[in-house]
Amino acid sequence: MLGNQKGKRLGKYIEDYVVFDLETTGISAQWDEVVEISGLKVRNGKIVEEFQSLVNPGRPIPKRASLVNGITDDMVQDAPPFSLVLADFLNFAENDVLVGHNIHSFDMKFIYRDAERFFGQLPDNDYIDTLPLARQCVSGLSHHRLVDLASHYQISVDGAHRALNDCRMNQQVFERLGAELRERQGGDSGLRTCARCGQVMVRRKGRYGEFWGCSGFPNCRNTEKIS
Prior knowledge:
Blueprint: E1 2-3, E2 9-10, E3 17-24, E4 34-43, E5 46-54, H1 63-69, H2 73-76, H3 82-93, E6 98-100, H4 107-119, E7 122-123, E8 127-129, H5 130-137, H6 146-152, H7 163-184, E9 201-206, E10 209-214, E11 223-225
Parallel strand pairs: 2-8, 3-6, 6-8
Antiparallel strand pairs: 1-7, 3-4, 4-5, 9-10, 10-11
């Protein structure tokens, strides 16, 4: 829901959440616009409700974007603006934790930007980015893109890069990651988190070797020794 501050980034698996995905006109959260948003409401690890809408971005969709997601100007001509769609999506998500792949660096930036632009407030939902979870749970992959993880877990990648299909793919990947977290950590479904801000701690290399550093750097500079 909307509030005065952003939610926290969590580093764990949970059973109840809303997984979501955006398609956009490009990769810049400063200049580009949303053309599609989808979400799946999950309870006890099972999908119970869907949300999907195309969005009229108010500008032509670049050809390079259409080549990736298959969404064209004709498809969004009669679609509602994102001011209406985002309000509907936030009502759909309610207070649930949001889940998505690479959302910390991409999707949440669009959500925060446009919520502030349209409503003057920010979604205060906590969120989970499956990318750092995958990097810690799945070794041996040269890349940890959503399609790479789906292939690793033998999940269908048909229709990839359309928002609803990516949500379905990501929901299955998140469930597999949750199972791996519990198995590797003796039933614990979380990652190491920062004692100061609650964000995920990641391994980093420094002058004196490896250490745990907060993924919220540079806003949080907390570090811990690797025992």
